[in-house]
Specification:
With 367 residues, the chain is α/β, with parallel strands linked by helices. It has 13 helices and 12 strands. Strands 4-11-10-9-8-7-6-5 form an 8-stranded parallel beta sheet. A two-stranded antiparallel ribbon has the order 1-12. It is globular. Bound molecules: ligand FNR. Ligand FNR binds next to loops. InterPro entries: Aldolase_TIM, Alpha-hydoxy_acid_DH_FMN, FMN-dep_DH, FMN_HAD. It is an enzyme of class 1 (oxidoreductase).
Length: 367
């Protein structure tokens, strides 16, 4: 049931505290460290305003786009979000159903509670990509890629910004502990996952000789590309040079992201990094964006600054906790309608009409 009184996607954030225990909410909402980057992600949208334009005919308007060979009816994807059983017993199978129903491409996490095959079944006629964390052993990485291929995932999204992650301070303070029944459904042991923080031998650094020992390098990415028939994307790009390297090394596309502020605390806001990345990869390279999208207007700004489409992370979790698949579908519908209204008011009939000329910097005099 969708509770009455939900007027926009973000209303689920207000409601979800009645559905999620406080320590779990702290884990889900938290960023890394002192939450600087998480908060910057949201604040960055206030650096831009949108020009209203008058008397434009948008009656032929639509939000369709072609993305990596797929025809999508709108530019909202569901970002990979781990351990969704924390907020709903149906976990990722609920989000997968919502994605299929609303025509949103689903990016399923390596660290999903449900196995990727169950997610695929729930998403049967939907479009889905698989977010791959490199595992310490290549055979395990390869096995995940094979399973994703077999289950109808159409791309692999390698997340590279989380080889090491400090725990969220707010989650620590709230006493959050991952429940025993919340294992990663795709993996034999959680110790093999990127969320773990492995021990190092005495006298060695838990970071350099511990967590980073298993971190991938370019050779691993090249290996993965040669191993799979699926296009390989990279998620977690912020620096323009990293984006240019991805393009030069044959990566299919990149996702500008700072993991919702959960990786390097102090990293730039995703939106602030976006124009530089677009400039570095050129106009024709597939480029997605996430970090702080809470409304259709936010999506409009990201599209104007160079993204082809956007992913939503926390919004889907809030809605999942409140109303399962129905809630997630509702969020996608609300976002799409807000984007359409924004496009119409800005005089943009199609996504191709949205560009930097649609925005004005909020803190500078208007030209
Ligand atoms: C994430 N994110 C993430 N990313 C990824 O590549 N693999 C994963 O397993 C997860 N897990 C995860 C769990 C939780 C609780 C959150 C909040 C986020 C990051 C996610 O894909 C995305 O980059 C951000 O969530 C986008 O920011 P917003 O939309 O949450 O502001």
């Amino acid at each position: 049931q969708i509770p009455p009184g939900i007027a926009c996607a973000r209303d689920y954030e207000l409601l979800c505290e009645h559905f999620i225990p406080a320590p779990t909410l702290a884990y889900l909402a938290g960023g890394a460290g002192h939450d600087r980057t998480r908060d910057a992600n949201l604040a960055a949208f206030d650096d831009w305003t949108i020009w209203p334009r008058l008397l434009r005919d948008v009656t032929h308007g639509h939000t369709r786009l072609a993305l990596a060979g797929a025809e999508l009816s709108h530019p909202f994807l569901l970002a990979p979000v781990a351990f969704q059983k924390l907020v709903h017993p149906g976990a990722e199978t609920e989000t997968a159903r919502a994605a299929a129903a609303l025509g949103a491409c689903l990016v399923a996490s390596t660290l999903s509670s449900a196995p990727l095959e169950d997610i695929a079944t729930a998403n049967a006629d939907g479009r889905r990509w698989f977010q791959l964390y490199f595992q310490p052993e290549r055979a395990a990485t390869q096995a995940l890629a094979r399973r994703a291929e077999a289950a109808g995932y159409e791309a692999l999204v390698v997340t590279l910004d989380a080889a090491i992650r400090l725990p969220s301070l707010s989650a620590l303070r709230a006493g959050f502990v991952m429940p025993a029944d919340c294992a990663a459904g795709n993996l034999q042991t959680l110790a093999a996952s990127a969320e773990a923080f492995p021990a190092a031998p005495p006298g060695q650094s838990r970071i350099f000789q511990g967590a980073m020992r298993a971190a991938p390098g370019w050779a691993d990415l090249d290996w993965l590309r040669s191993e799979t028939r699926l296009p390989v994307w990279v998620k977690g790009v912020l620096h323009p040079d990293d984006a240019a390297d991805c393009r030069a090394r044959g990566i299919a596309g990149v996702i500008v992201s700072n993991h919702g502020g959960r990786a390097l605390d102090g990293a730039p806001a995703s939106l602030a990094a976006l124009p530089g990345v677009r400039a570095a990869v050129g106009a024709d390279y597939p480029l997605l964006f996430d970090g702080g999208i809470r409304s259709g207007g936010d999506a409009f700004k990201a599209l104007a600054l160079g993204a082809n489409a956007v992913l939503v992370g926390r919004l889907q979790v809030w809605a999942l906790s409140v109303a399962g698949a129905l809630g997630v579908a509702h969020v996608l519908k609300l976002l799409r309608e807000e984007l359409e209204a924004c496009m119409a008011q800005a005089g943009c009939a199609t996504l191709a009409d949205i560009g930097p000329h649609c925005l004005a910097a909020a803190h500078e005099p208007l030209a």
